[in-house]
């Protein structure tokens, strides 16, 4: 299980971007984070073409499928549909990882038992 933002575990930060110049300002250690696909699908395609790892905030299964096909490395899901998206990811053997945004360390164990790929603390998103 992947854990981003835990105080004891060194990890990359997710950096929200809205433009190509924002992407250029990130470092190789950062994970580019795009908002909704509707607003950032062109940037997602650009990142795929440039072979740059990135994450997407998603709300639906449809968005997860599109994100996978646009080469996203990670999707950050709503807790309400994360398990459905994880099941689809496993069924189709996606390399894209399904993450859930968490607030409390106690949530790590809960999501691990449910088989989710990883969790992200709010502190890991800039």
Describe this structure in words.
The chain is α/β, with parallel strands linked by helices. 36% of the residues lie in helices and 22% in strands. It contains five helices and seven strands; from the N terminus they run ββαβαβαβαβαβ. The chain has helices spanning 20-24, 37-49, 61-69, 82-91, 106-113, and strands at residues 2-4, 14-16, 31-34, 54-57, 74-77, 97-102, 118-121. It has a seven-stranded parallel β-sheet with strand order 1-7-6-5-4-3-2, with helices on one face. Strand 5, helix 4 (82-91) and strand 6 form a beta-alpha-beta unit.
Strand coverage percent: 15-25%
Spatial strand order of the main sheet: 1-7-6-5-4-3-2
Q: What is the 3D shape?
A: globular
End-to-end CA span:
22 Å
Helix/strand order, N-terminal first:
EEHEHEHEHEHE
Largest sheet: 7 strands, parallel
Q: Give the overall pLDDT as a whole number.
A: 96
What is the percent of helical residues?
25-40%
The DSSP helix count reads 5
What is the number of beta strands? 7
> What ranges have pLDDT less than 50 throughout 5 or more consecutive residues?
none
Compile the SSE list and pairings.
Layout: E1 2-4, E2 14-16, H1 20-24, E3 31-34, H2 37-49, E4 54-57, H3 61-69, E5 74-77, H4 82-91, E6 97-102, H5 106-113, E7 118-121
Please name the defining characteristics of this protein.
126 residues; globular; 22% strand; 5 helices; 7-stranded parallel β-sheet; alpha/beta
Short description:
The protein is of the alpha/beta class.
